[in-house]
Amino acid sequence: MTEEEKIFDVAPGEKYVDDRSRMTIFFQVLGRKFWKLISMNLIFLIFNIPSIIISFLLSGYVINVFSPFIENADEMAAVLFVYSFPLLMFLMVIPAITVGPAQAGLTYLLRCFSYELPTFYWSDFKDKMKENLKQGIAVSLINLVAIVLLIIDFYLYGQMTDNGSNFMLSAANGLLIVVFLLFVMMSMYIYPMMVSYELNLKNLYKNAFLFSIGRFLPNLGVLIICFLLVIGPMAVVMFSGNAIALVIVYIYYLILGFSLPGLVLNFFINPAIDKYLRPAPAQGNKE
């Protein structure tokens, strides 16, 4: 709701009280900012090309899971574009794999959207990239190393369990899944805190870890929503086996694949962060 709409809803001398639910605000923002989300997604993709290339290369480890069922090159390509790469794209959306400064710029704009704050799209995106350049690069490199090690660990444990399962391997695999899940949850909080508060790397990761533990079930819920937004459209391709449907899904990734799940994340994450890190009403700028 714009400031003008608020003024006309309030009689002289009355104080405006916003009684809309967060879900109502989300769909109102989605309707008003739909075309801006598309343009932001396209701009972000340009800056995020390195992450896309890295994720594409990591897809080989995911393909290995399906390798016993692959009989020819055509099936390999189908597994890559229907199963493997979309799973890695989910990690880019969270974002565990991303170009940090560009992610900071996108996150700031989506944060403003979540609070219905006015923005200057390109200039704010560019300013937040510059402002968080060093920290964004550091976080993206740390997260990349962590996620690569976790994916390789999953690959190696998968190889070992193929040769004979035992209790210790099963326990280690279970622990690895928990660590992976907590790390993904931490990734949801790091960039919203980065663009909103003056925190060093140590405190960014410390707070993100605390949020991942303390809000585990709500985090799991929003992860499922984002997973459905990224992987859900592929279910149509899987059931139909239609190449046209696959093209349509990748067009969806191109125009809304990052900004739409990112909007969901910011609507969920920012109120939780501000509740504990800032007692004052939420603002769009760093403090």
Descriptive notes:
The protein is an all-alpha fold and 287 residues long. The chain has helices spanning 3-8, 22-32, 34-47, 49-66, 73-93, 100-114, 121-131, 133-162, 167-196, 201-214, 216-240, 243-256, 259-277. The chain is globular and about 70 Å long.
Topology:
Layout: H1 3-8, H2 22-32, H3 34-47, H4 49-66, H5 73-93, H6 100-114, H7 121-131, H8 133-162, H9 167-196, H10 201-214, H11 216-240, H12 243-256, H13 259-277
Task: Please outline what is shown here.
By secondary structure, this protein is an all-alpha fold. 79% of the residues lie in helices and 0% in strands.
What descriptors fit this protein?
13 helices, disordered C terminus
Principal-axis shape equals globular
Rg calc: 20 Å
Number of helices: 13
Number of strands: 0
